[in-house]
Design a protein that fits this description.
Layout (H helix, E strand, L loop, with lengths): L5 H8 L3 H8 L8 H14 L8 H4 L4 E7 L5 H13 L4 E7 L5 H10 L4 E4 L6 H10 L4 E4 L10 E4 L1 H14 L5 E6 L4 H16 L6 E5 L3 H7 L10 E4 L2 H13 L9 E6 L12 E4 L2 H16 L8 E4 L2 E3 L9
Parallel strand pairs: 1-2, 1-3, 3-4, 4-5, 5-11, 6-7, 6-8, 8-9, 9-10
Antiparallel strand pairs: 10-12
Helix pairs in contact: 1-2, 1-3, 5-12, 8-9, 10-11
Bound molecules: alpha-D-ribofuranose.
Alpha-D-ribofuranose (RIB) binds next to helix 9 and strand 9.
Protein name: LacI family DNA-binding transcriptional regulator
InterPro entries: Cro/C1-type_HTH, HTH_LacI, LacI/GalR-like_sensor, Lambda_DNA-bd_dom_sf, Peripla_BP_I
Keywords: DNA-binding, Repressor, Transcription, Transcription regulation
Length: 330
């Protein structure tokens, strides 16, 4: 995608490149109000972003990609980062940022003003229409993944969440569990809603209409805190919305003298790197985390290089990994 250049602004305003450069660099003394206005209007109309950083020093062949994720402490997201970093070609630089909810737009503007060529966004976007309009105006392609919604504006990379939730329910029910609970975050992203729909639908078809739902923080501490609300309810099978919640819940179960899996089975979601090393090792639904990073990078580079203008929805598979935190009641 070709970015708007200073030459385009000069042409639109009907003045020289030097005049545009002076005016945009606050060297306005020798220009009339009329000329200044023409330049500022042309800049606004074309969505020109002056390069505040050393894009020229990078050389025009080096591409800079900004990646925005909700957290770096959760291995799910740091593994995506690792994967992108490992798979990036030599002429690509990546800037990784995590954002709290309100910071997303400012972070994106900051990256755009510093000459980023494309963006990968892996968290909820509050105002997708506005963001799409802003990035389109500035000719910055972007792709979204995981917690971002599919608004149809650009490529989305997701896993088969519905199938993943269904596989978790099937595993617990195949093992004879009928008294089930879901530990989920207060704020459910679209991908997690699909995950839970898949779980609940499978339960419904197998005569377990209403698994209990415990809402908590999306963290290990959240999992730990959720357990208080569960232990009086004779639950034998828990579906944790992610592995971190499962890890926190297992800690609290053990602290409350429940054996996992002898008293309670628990299945997580993600298959983060810790899952296989825990004791007991965590049964979970694996997302192909490395592949998510690789595919997202591939898609954004295609767009930055102008090789793809169509909008793609890419769905990667999930997989049940049976380890030691679930046990058959039969
Ligand atoms: O662990 C982080 C969770 O949030 C994952 O399940 C991922 O899919 C994201 O939505």
């Amino acid at each position: 995608m070709k970015k708007v250049s200073i030459k385009d602004v000069a042409r639109e305003a009907g003045v020289s490149v030097t005049a545009v450069s002076h005016i945009l660099n606050d060297n306005k003394q020798r220009f009339s109000q009329g000329t200044i206005k023409k330049v500022l209007d042309a800049k606004e109309k074309l969505g020109y972003i002056p390069n505040k950083n050393a894009q020229q020093l990078r050389g025009s062949k080096t591409k800079m990609i900004g990646v925005l994720l909700p957290s770096l402490t959760n291995p799910f997201f740091s593994t995506i980062i690792q994967s992108m970093d490992e798979h990036k070609p030599d002429n690509v630089e990546i800037i990784f940022l995590t954002t709290i909810n309100k910071g997303l737009e400012e972070n994106i503007k900051h990256l755009v003003e510093h000459g980023v060529d494309g963006l990968v966004i892996g968290r909820l976007i509050d105002e997708p229409e506005n963001l799409n309009a802003y990035l389109t105006k500035h000719k910055i392609p972007y792709v979204v993944l995981d917690q971002s919604e599919d608004n149809g504006f650009t490529d989305i990379i997701r896993t088969n969440e519905h199938e993943g939730g269904k596989s978790a329910a099937k595993h617990l029910i195949d093992y004879g569990h009928t008294n089930l609970a879901i530990i989920q975050p207060y704020e459910l992203m679209a991908n997690m809603k699909n995950r839970i729909d898949g779980f609940e639908q499978y339960c419904g078809v197998h005569n377990i209409p209403n698994p209990k739902k415990i809402n908590t923080e999306l963290s290990k501490l959240g999992g730990k805190n959720a357990v208080n609300q569960l232990i009086s309810q004779e639950v034998t099978g828990i579906f944790a919305i992610n592995d971190e919640i499962a890890i926190g819940a297992i800690r609290a179960l053990i602290d409350n003298n429940f054996a996992v899996p002898d008293d309670i089975s628990i299945i997580g979601y993600d298959d983060i790197d810790f899952a296989q090393y825990m004791n007991p090792a965590l049964t979970t639904i694996a997302q192909p985390i490395d592949e998510i990073g690789k595919v997202a990078l591939h898609q954004i580079l295609k767009k930055v290089e102008g090789l793809s203008s169509k909008t793609e929805k890419i769905e990667l598979p999930t997989q049940l990994i049976v380890r030691e935190t679930t046990q058959s009641l039969k």
